[in-house]
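Today's session is about reading a structure prediction critically. Students often jump straight to the picture, but the first step is always the sequence itself: look for stretches that repeat, for charged clusters, for runs of hydrophobic residues. Only then move on to the predicted structure, which in these notes is written as discrete structure tokens rather than atom positions. Here is the chain we will use throughout the hour.
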Amino acid sequence: MKENTRNLQQEQVEKLEVLGARLRQCRLEKSITLEEVAAQTRIQARLLQAIEEGRLDLLPEPVYIQGFLRRFAEALELDGAEFARAFPAGAGVVLMKPRWQYLPAAQLRPLHLYLFYILLVISSVSGLSYILNRSAVQVIEVENIPSAQQFPTPKNTQPIPPKQSLDASQSAQVSHASQDGKPVQVGVTLKAQSWIRVVVDGKTEFEGVLPEGTQRTWVADEQLIVRAGNAGGVLVEFNDQSAKQMGAPGAVEEMTFAANPRS
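Below is the predicted structure for this chain, in token form.
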């Protein structure tokens, strides 16, 4: 077995010397440099020189040498297949890992490029996931905002006090009295928004918030009570008298109007 291997190697060396010499002679006749052949075949110049010199020890496995011979010969316009067949590669070709250092540089694929592509894909997926999660969180935050924050109270709007109890049977002291036998007529004009409650002859005729610019009139046979949460924004006109402001802005005031019985 060892004897056969030595014989094969000796034959390969002899054939390589002959083939390399022919290639070198043809190259020189055509005045082509090794660098030009290397650029055309994509085989390193040092490997081409080893072929011309018959240096089998500087070349990779025989199967690769056959490929180099083919391309070298074709670059010189020779029969590449004939040169490849002339070099003995051995009866049994064993597949094994190539020696990457002998392969053309242009055929290599640097490992760091694949790692870069993988990192780029991971970064893209992570970025997209972050954007989608962030958008979902913002939507949830907007949905959970209380309605009071979505619709803030205007700065110039006077505060509206809560409903206050007003019992007609326990009305305040009479503020104004009409002439004998004349019914009570009270007009209300709003200069600013205010809560209003009007009790006519012991019955609540109105209770709620009136906006700025509202004008309302009520008539009572015996007694009429007006209570305002923003007295400074309410003008009250009693019968034919001039309208008067009920009180200070923001103050809760109450006015009672009564009819004098006929004498």
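Discussion point for the tutorial: Residues 92-108, 145-151, 160-173 have pLDDT under 50 and may be disordered.
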